[in-house]
Design the sequence.
C-alpha cells in the first residue's frame, strides 16, 4: 500500500534528517539531497527546506551544506520558480556572516543582487544578522568584501540610526579605509551628508566628505556657502560621475567651476555629454581643448581611453562646423597630434589645409621633424607629412587656386637646405596625385597635368604615390584586384597619351606593367 501525502512528507523529513547528520564530509549525501531537490514536486521541495531547518539548526558552518548551495546555484536553470525560492531560502539559512566575507568561492551576497533574487527586505535581514553577530565592524568588513560595495553599505545605512552611522563614518578617515569611507558617505542622502558636514565632530574636511558623495543641485548650493579654500578643494577634485540629474543651470555652473579650478578632465566629460545630447557649444569646446594638457601618465586606463575618444570627437565637431577657424583648429590638431594619426575617428584636416595654403607652415613642420629628439613625436610628424594629400593651393571651399599652387612650388625650390628642399618637393609631387578632373572632363586638371609633364623630378614623387595609393592586399587570394588595377591604369595611360601627356602616360603604364607582371607570375 502506498503512502498518503502526509506520510510521504514525514518520510522525506526523516530521510533529510539522516542526510543532515552525515553531510559534513560526505559528497554522496550531498548529491542525494541535490537529486531530491530536482526530482520531487514543488510542494515537497518546500518540505525538504523545512526539514533541513528543523533537523540541522547547528549546521551553519557545515561545508557540505555550502556545497549544496553552490552546486544548486550553478544549476538553477533546471529549477522552477518555487524551487529557486526554496534554494534562496536555503542559501540564506546556511550563510553565516563570517563565511560570506571570508570565502571568495561562496555564492556571494553580491551575486544574489546581480541576479535580482534579493529584495530590499531580504538584503536588510542579511545585514541585520551580520550586525547582530559580528557588530558594526563585521558588517562593514562584509560590505568591503562583496563586489557591490555601495549597495551593501546602503543596506547597512538603512539599519543604523543616523547618529550611530555618523559615528561609524568617523572611524574610517584614514587612507587605508578610503574606499569604505567613500562608500559610507555615498550611502547618505543630500540632507544627511550636509548634516554630517555640519556636525563639527568629524575630523574630515567638508571637501573630503562632499567629493565622494554624488553631486546634486542641493549639494552645489551648499558648496557655495563654504569658505573659499574648501570650495576650491571641491571643484578641483570633484568627479563627473553622477552629474546626469543636475538641472541645466547647475550643469553649466559645474562646467564653469571645474574649468575655473583646473579640473579639466571632469570638464571634458561634462562638455562631451552635452555633445552626445546634441547640445553643441563651440566656445566651450575651443576653451577646454586649449586649456587641457593631455598627459597619459596622469590618467587611469579607463580614463585614458575615454579622454582620447572625447578629444577626437571634439576636434571632429570643430572641423565640420560652419566656417571652421582653420588656424585655431590646426593649432589644436598639432597639440593633440598623437591622438589623431593612429585613429580613424578624425584626421588632422586643418593642419593639411593650412599646409596646402602656407608653404612656410609646411616647412616649419619639416624642421620640427628634423629637430625632434622624442622618437614618439618624430614618428607622429613623419606620419603626418607622409599622409599629406591636399593639393597645395586648395582653398577651404575645395577649389584650386593654381597661382597659389605655383607659389608653393617656387617657395620649396628656393629652400637652401637640400635635404629639406627634397622633402618639400616630394610632399608636393605626392599630393598632386590626388588632383581632381578638369572642367572639360579630362582625368587631371589640365593646369596640373601641364606642370607635371614638364617637371620630371616632381613626376617621380607622383609615380611613387600612384603605387602607394593602391594599398596592400593579398594577390594570391584577391587576384581580381590585380586585374582591376591593370585595367584602370591602362585606361589612364591611354587617355593621357591621347591628350599628349606622354610622361604622365608612361607613369601609369609603369604601374600597370608592374602589376601585370605579378599577375602573370601568379598564373604560372
Sequence:
Amino acid at each position: 500500500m502506498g503512502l498518503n501525502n502526509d506520510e510521504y512528507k514525514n518520510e522525506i523529513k526523516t530521510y533529510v534528517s539522516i542526510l543532515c547528520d552525515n553531510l559534513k564530509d560526505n559528497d554522496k549525501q550531498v548529491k542525494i539531497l541535490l537529486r531530491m531537490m530536482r526530482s520531487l514536486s514543488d510542494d515537497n521541495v518546500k518540505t525538504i527546506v523545512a526539514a533541513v531547518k528543523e533537523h540541522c539548526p547547528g549546521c551553519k558552518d557545515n561545508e557540505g551544506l555550502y556545497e549544496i548551495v553552490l552546486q544548486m546555484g550553478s544549476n538553477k536553470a533546471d529549477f522552477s520558480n518555487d524551487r529557486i525560492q526554496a534554494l534562496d531560502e536555503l542559501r540564506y539559512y546556511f550563510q553565516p556572516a563570517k563565511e560570506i566575507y571570508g570565502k571568495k568561492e561562496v555564492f556571494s551576497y553580491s551575486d544574489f543582487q546581480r541576479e535580482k533574487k534579493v529584495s530590499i527586505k531580504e538584503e536588510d535581514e542579511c545585514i541585520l544578522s551580520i550586525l547582530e553577530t559580528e557588530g558594526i565592524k563585521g558588517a562593514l568588513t562584509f560590505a568591503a568584501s562583496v563586489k557591490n560595495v555601495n549597495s551593501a553599505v546602503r543596506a547597512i545605512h538603512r539599519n543604523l540610526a543616523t547618529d550611530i552611522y555618523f559615528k561609524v563614518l568617523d572611524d574610517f578617515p584614514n587612507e587605508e579605509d578610503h574606499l569604505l569611507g567613500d562608500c559610507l558617505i555615498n550611502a547618505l542622502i543630500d540632507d544627511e551628508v550636509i548634516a554630517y558636514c555640519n556636525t563639527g565632530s568629524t575630523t574630515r574636511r567638508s571637501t573630503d566628505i562632499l567629493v565622494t558623495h554624488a553631486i546634486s543641485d542641493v549639494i552645489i548650493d551648499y558648496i557655495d556657502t563654504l569658505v573659499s579654500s574648501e570650495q576650491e578643494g571641491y571643484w578641483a577634485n570633484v568627479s563627473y560621475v553622477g552629474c546626469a540629474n543636475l538641472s541645466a543651470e547647475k550643469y553649466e555652473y559645474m562646467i564653469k567651476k571645474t574649468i575655473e579650478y583646473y579640473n579639466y578632465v571632469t570638464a571634458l566629460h561634462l562638455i562631451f555629454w552635452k555633445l552626445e545630447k546634441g547640445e553643441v557649444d563651440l566656445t566651450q569646446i575651443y576653451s577646454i581643448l586649449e586649456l587641457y594638457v593631455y598627459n597619459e601618465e596622469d590618467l587611469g586606463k579607463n580614463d585614458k581611453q575615454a579622454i582620447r575618444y572625447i578629444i577626437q570627437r571634439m576636434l571632429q565637431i570643430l572641423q565640420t562646423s560652419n566656417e571652421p577657424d582653420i588656424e585655431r583648429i590646426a593649432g589644436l590638431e598639432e597639440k593633440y597630434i598623437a591622438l589623431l594619426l593612429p585613429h580613424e575617428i578624425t584626421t588632422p584636416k586643418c593642419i593639411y589645409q593650412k599646409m596646402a595654403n602656407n608653404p612656410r607652415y609646411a616647412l616649419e613642420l619639416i624642421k620640427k621633424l628634423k629637430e625632434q629628439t622624442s622618437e614618439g613625436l618624430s614618428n607622429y610628424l613623419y606620419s603626418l607629412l607622409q599622409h599629406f594629400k591636399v593639393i597645395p593651393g586648395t582653398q577651404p571651399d575645395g577649389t584650386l587656386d593654381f597661382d597659389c599652387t605655383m607659389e608653393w612650388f617656387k617657395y620649396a625650390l628656393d629652400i637652401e637646405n637640400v635635404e629639406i628642399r627634397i622633402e618639400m618637393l616630394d610632399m608636393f609631387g605626392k599630393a598632386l596625385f590626388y588632383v581632381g578632373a578638369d572642367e572639360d572632363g579630362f582625368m587631371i586638371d589640365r593646369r596640373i597635368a601641364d606642370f607635371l609633364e614638364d617637371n620630371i623630378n616632381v613626376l617621380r614623387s607622383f609615380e611613387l604615390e600612384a603605387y602607394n595609393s593602391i594599398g596592400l592586399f593579398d594577390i594570391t587570394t584577391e587576384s581580381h584586384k590585380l586585374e582591376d588595377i591593370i585595367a584602370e591604369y591602362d585606361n589612364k595611360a591611354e587617355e593621357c597619351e591621347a591628350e599628349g601627356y606622354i610622361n604622365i602616360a608612361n607613369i601609369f603604364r609603369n604601374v600597370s606593367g608592374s602589376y601585370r607582371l605579378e599577375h602573370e607570375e601568379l598564373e604560372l
